[in-house]
Design brief:
CATH topology: Rossmann fold
Largest sheet: 7 strands, mixed
CATH superfamily: Vaccinia Virus protein VP39
CATH architecture: 3-Layer(aba) Sandwich
Bound molecules: S-adenosylmethionine
Order of helices and strands: HHEHEHEEHEHHEHHE
Number of strands: 7
Distance between the termini: 28 Å
Strand content: 15-25%
Shape: globular
Number of domains: 1
Radius of gyration: 18 Å
């Protein structure tokens, strides 16, 4: 999806921002697999508005370059991140604007299903990483479809997820073919919202690329159904879905 042809950049952070404890959980998961002392340069590939970029720099005490094809997403990222070791470049996964063996880690969050050439991107990761460097991928996959909390509220969304999502095995095969060894795969139960009412508010902002493919009438009907559910749900019930974490090593 070309994010510059949508209004997603303007609403992304308010619709998909993390609570600080959730962000910390993800960073801790990463450094449990990738020792911090071997990481001084990170690529945040498909960084978007920089939801992870500065946090990666602080957590790993590393330089981070955020790369994204979208000018509007990068503009938001640049506005928020003024820390020196963080920089941004316009580019794509299939043609990374970076030198050979120049990075210790490539991180990708919720990008894989947008890549037009995932195998070419895996080859580019191999090129820019030093030997022993890691690729960490945080992405929902087709295997987790039943955990999408909005599945039962939006007519037509199942077919869109099925068409757009990548199976877990495809990601593993792309990186194995590019010369990586698999370190771990885990399905992480990720808390998207503390309750159904705030989950409905977040989805209503329209920053989800799968929901953005629905006809407007189906999207609005789904938001109404979601809000109706929120009104009678336990206000203490958090909303979760499984997100896959893959770590590969060059
Ligand atoms: C759902 S956003 C994720 C942003 C960020 N990683 C995060 O987790 O908040 C997906 C991002 O992938 C970017 N993207 C789309 N095609 C890409 C490509 N070929 N190479 C790298 N990034 C791409 C989009 O521009 C968008 O910013």
């Amino acid at each position: 999806m070309d994010y510059d042809k949508t209004d997603i950049a303007a609403v992304y952070d308010s619709a998909r921002g993390f609570d600080p404890d959730i962000l910390q959980e993800w960073l801790t998961l990463l450094s449990a697999q990738v020792p911090k002392d071997g990481v001084s340069r990170i690529v945040d590939l498909g960084c978007g508005t920089g939801r992870f970029t500065e946090a990666l720099s602080l957590h790993f005490d590393a330089d981070v370059v955020g790369i994204d094809p979208s000018a509007t997403m990068l503009q938001r990222a640049r506005e928020k991140n003024s820390r020196n070791p963080v920089s941004f470049k316009q580019g794509t996964g299939e043609s990374l604007p970076l030198e050979d063996s120049s990075a210790d880690m490539v991180f990708m969050s919720m990008v894989y299903h947008h890549l037009p050439d995932p195998q070419g991107t895996a080859r580019e990761c191999h090129r820019v990483l030093r030997k022993g460097g890691h690729v960490c991928i945080r992405n929902s996959t087709l295997d987790q479809i039943e955990t999408y909390p909005y599945l039962r509220f939006f007519d037509g969304i199942r077919a869109i997820i099925e068409e757009q999502s990548i199976p877990r095995g495809q990601i593993e095969s792309d990186f194995s073919t590019a010369g990586f060894k698999a370190v771990i795969h885990k399905a992480i139960p990720h808390r998207i919202a503390p309750d159904w009412a705030s989950y409905a508010d977040k989805q209503a902002k329209g920053a989800d690329s799968f929901l953005a493919r629905l006809p407007e009438g189906d999207f609005q009907a789904g938001i109404t159904a979601l809000r109706a559910h929120a009104e009678q749900a336990d206000p203490e019930e958090s909303v979760r879905m499984n997100i896959d974490l893959f770590v590969f090593q060059r």
